[in-house]
Amino acid sequence: MTTPATPAAQPVSAAELDQVVRGEHGNPHGVLGPHPHEGAVTVRVLKPLASSVEVRWDRGAVELSHEHEGVWVGVLPLPDVPDYRVATSYGAEPVVLDDPYRFLPTLGEVDLHLINEGRHEQLWEVLGARVRHYPGALEPVTGTSFAVWAPSARAVRIKADFNSWDGREHPMRQLGTSGVWELFVPGVRSGAAYKFVILGPDGEWREKADPMAAWAEKPADTASKIFESDYEWGDADWLAKRAGSSPVDAPMSVYEMHLGSWKKHLDGRYWSWAELAEELPAYVAGLGFTHVELMPVMQHPFGGSWGYHVTSYFAPDSRFGDPDGFRLLVDRLHQAGVGVILDWVPGHFATDEWALARFDGTPLYEDPNPQRGWHKEWGSHIFNFGRREVRNFLYANAVYWLEEFHADGLRVDGVASMLYLDYAREDGEWSPNIHGGHENLEAVQFLQEMNATVYKRIPGIATIAEESTSWPGVTKPTSADGLGFGFKWNMGWMHDSLDYLAHEPVHRAYHHGEMTFSLVYAFSENFVLPLSHDEVVHGKGSLLRKMPGDRWQQLANLRAYLGFMWAHPGKQLLFMGCELGQESEWAESRELDWWLLEHPEHRGVSDLVRDLNAAYVGSPAVWSRDNDPSGFQWIDANDAGRNVFSFIRRGSGDAPDVVCVSNFAAVPHDDYRVGLPAAGEWEEILNSDAEAYAGSGVGNFGSVTAVEGEWSGQPAHATIVVPPLATVWFRKRA
Hints:
alpha+beta, eight-stranded parallel beta barrel, elongated
């Protein structure tokens, strides 16, 4: 009996082999890898510069012959494809590797359909670089699947440290008409660096970082890195409690910070995620803040952008360490009882040529219309909100940070710039929408989709809009045609109150309305009162330096202002350093002036912030009805002659009312009669002029007694001492 002859290799034309060698074949798997035919298996591999190539399986081996410019071919005398390996020699010992071209696509039809529909809510699980583990006949297979959306590309390769940065060995296949290119590379694990090399329709090859990369090289290097998390979370109790809560109805006092300049090593290096996790949670919790807000932690190349010019939307900043280090920081904050809000920048992105800009040789992520796709004010590209795949990329990114990193909220940067087609544009530089208006209808659609998606998927989180105009319904639900945010920054309150405080006390009577006007609209949205980084940088001076007078008066003004702010309807946000009474304005190049805490007057500001947070959280009247006009009542909004503001925060149920009296005059007011909601003893729970805060110590010896008798529309009244440049809180004693 004769053994059947092994057939010749399945033929491929020279033209098609040329396409593979040039990296221009849309389906290299159709040529490379195993192909059964006539009872045997033809195997082709692309190994430029190899001196010999052999295919090995558990029962044999076949030497391949060189066929065409780095393409090697041979026939395995087997009816089915075995679990084989490729041994390649370059003049020394052979390198034995698995063959990427023997694997099926890692994306299914449902994934591709959802991507093209713009509705894949977990996009990061199918695009980008994902480590995967499969069983195998020879041994289990671990490798990385690479997938990238580049619909106008003629070809895509992977250039990486695992192929000596020679992308010729790893051309990717296009999955039908989806625009997605894919390749599974066995043997590649977490930590490997890579880029996509994309042939655009113009015939130019471009090296690009992965838009979906989970990690990136440390700037100034620009490659993406593979990352497989093995982090074990310890915040289950926090997440369970969060899921049953509503941030709008809970206390929220936010410490905003730039991680790179909070503290630095003596040589200027950033603290690592682990170092921050050791110290930051205790510090923030010790001051009593309920949340920390982090300026963008997404990968960005230029530190001076503070993270607002992003290049890798899915990668935590590698300057601090790997993504699991960031998970550790969030986990430790949660375990300390502190929520985590992340600044997020979906309005525009960095122009670096190796990142998103003209990603596949066309304006893919950016709007192709220069009147919509270029941000004059910030010198950056604007996303194409009219393209459903781009909207999907962005809202999936929002879900990613909330689910993968357990973030409790997203503060969305620059919402006003997204909403208006004429934002920062002169006449002739913008075109109206289909209705003739200046509203960016596609951006509105995106914001609504994003908010509806994250609130559906992750109960208890909050989205916060930095929105500086009077756009209606920012915090109304999308079902009522609102934008669907949980909160909106109250920029009007911030500007008006800082303008008022900048005046000398003797002139403040003429600007009294700047402090009361915010109550005209305080309940039109769910507001956050922001004293953010933008107010203490670029020549604006520190919060302390905005205050008039000598040093004592500046500190007193600051303490009085914080006391007023914490009692005002809305949640509070304070930028780092303000709690120290920082003298110099903030700069990202240096750490905070921690030495100020050695001085009693600056320690006093820090202690006041701590006590304000304690009084705030411990007084539900001050926060439980922030979105209810009946939770606030002026006692006297018109005492301009004495620079005094007095009002009531009303609690619900058994929660006692809190009365706030703020005096922004430089002199005390003795025998000041104030109307109160009820007769009885009212405890002085906070006095910003207390000696403990380096104040003058003027006060009411801990409490006042109210007697029956109408005053300022209230049924009772008391005579109190109002300290100079100070805020005093009173709470009815049970």
